[in-house]
Design brief:
Helix content: 10-25%
Oligomer: single chain
Number of strands: 11
CATH architecture of the largest domain: Sandwich
Largest sheet: 6 strands, antiparallel, barrel
Radius of gyration: 27 Å
Shape: elongated
Strand order of the largest sheet: 2-3-6-7-5-4
Strand content: over 45%
Structural class: alpha+beta
CATH class of the largest domain: Mainly Beta
Order of helices and strands: HHEEEEEEEEEEE
CATH topology of the largest domain: lipopolysaccharide transport protein A fold
Amino acid sequence: MGHRLEYFLAIVLLAVLATPSFLKVDKFKNENRVVSSNKSTEIKDFTQYDINRTSIEYRLTANLAEKRGDSWYLANPEIINGDIKSLRAKRSVSKGNKITFIDNVVMVKDDGKRYNSQKAIYDTETKVVTTPNRFTISKEYDMVNGVNMKYNSVTKETKAKNVKATFVLKKSD
């Protein structure tokens, strides 16, 4: 009877070791540990309000946010405040008081002007939008192109380099 028990245990051990699902479990556990150590927080479809004593400073919405270290990575972010109607992009990185918008950045102001670039940095404290590369500003038929734009939403001043503009002038009656 002793040989039968040893033979039975050997067959069970071989069956467990030969089972592919046994190997997958170990691999899955290792992958889970790697993923969870890179990403500490994930939020889907959220709205963040920055409120002072009397009003809302700005509202930030995004489809997805992931916190890694001291930075937030956002998918389809949009900022709305009293000075800028809308500032949005495909993605952004937020660290401290600066939000860097990347890929198809569009800023729309209440006066109808539309700012386009591939990268823009919004400082939530100073309310300044900076585009370190090329940008375009358009409104109806008017078009302005340049590089290194800095728009102060409090003073309504825009500064840039290498500016080229096309304006359609209206005839006076």
